[in-house]
Amino acid sequence: MKHGKYPLLAAFLLPALGLYGYFVISPYAQAFVISATDWHGLSNEFNWVGLDNFKRLLSDEYMRNALWHNALLLILLPVITIVLALFFSSMLNVHRAKGAGLYKIIYFAPQVLSVAVIGVLWKEIYNPRSGLLNGTLRALGLDGLAKTWLGDPAVAFWAILAVMVWANVGFYVVLFGAAMQSIPKELYEAAELDGSSRWATLWRITLPLLWDTVQVAWVYLAILALDGFALVQIMTRGGPNFSTDVVGQRMYDVAFSENKFGMASAIGVVLFFLTLTITVAALRITRRERIEFS
């Protein structure tokens, strides 16, 4: 029986590994190969150009612009989302705000919507003429604040960022809330008796005990910030004037608008290594001594 387990394991694992290799590993390998060619995607003819595509990316101002926007998202999206999620979770689970169950449903509601639905929904909300946002501002007599949210290069990026935070904060409210349920209530009761403020309780008790969960949230949000393609493509397609362009959108435009699949694959390879590097860096930077309680 001991020797017979290996054929059984192979029978279960090999088909799954084969499918994974064919549908996941193989496309990655092909992207690396294509990135070193000038393939246009419409024929089997291509020339081997080596690292020329990557050298061109170094001097591409559009690529630098897209990287800058991804860098801003990488800094702002995790920070804003995690801070808001921790605050809301603390209010709902630690301080027991009235109607906590209803608020949890409201916060989590965006999670049941696909990215496509969220993009189309907020594109209509931001509509300068018939959108809900400008309509509400005008109804309140704040006409001066009404803007062409997705048509103004100075505002469009921040409008996209707001949608990304709105779409993701609910999930982390629930995630942090579930983690808070495992923290002994005696710790909070002792802090309250000592006269600790809500901010001090969140900073000195809740956050250290939730650090592993926060670390995971940071990594996932960092990966999301390096992508951001779906919302940008649906809402602005990188405009106006490339003010919302991100690396994923740049890759899409280079491949399907300019028919430069070799260059687009090079952008994909850069994005792959950026994501891998940022993930490892985030795990190392946020690493700290585990705090245990019983």
From TrEMBL:
Entry keyword annotation includes Protein biosynthesis: no
The keyword Membrane appears for this protein: yes
GO cellular component, one term: plasma membrane
Residues annotated as domain ABC transmembrane type-1: 67-282
Annotated localization: Cell membrane
SUPFAM superfamilies recorded: MetI-like
Record keywords: Cell membrane, Membrane, Transmembrane, Transmembrane helix, Transport
Predominant location category: membrane
CDD domains with a match to the protein in the record: TM_PBP2 (cd06261)
Transmembrane segments: 67-89, 101-122, 155-178, 217-236, 261-283
InterPro entries xrefs: ABC_transporter_permease, MetI-like, MetI-like_sf
Top-level taxon of origin: Bacteria
Pfam families noted in UniProt: BPD_transp_1
Membrane topology: Multi-pass membrane protein
Protein's GO biological process: transmembrane transport
Membership in a protein family: Belongs to the binding-protein-dependent transport system permease family.
Protein name: Sugar ABC transporter permease
Species: Rhizocola hellebori
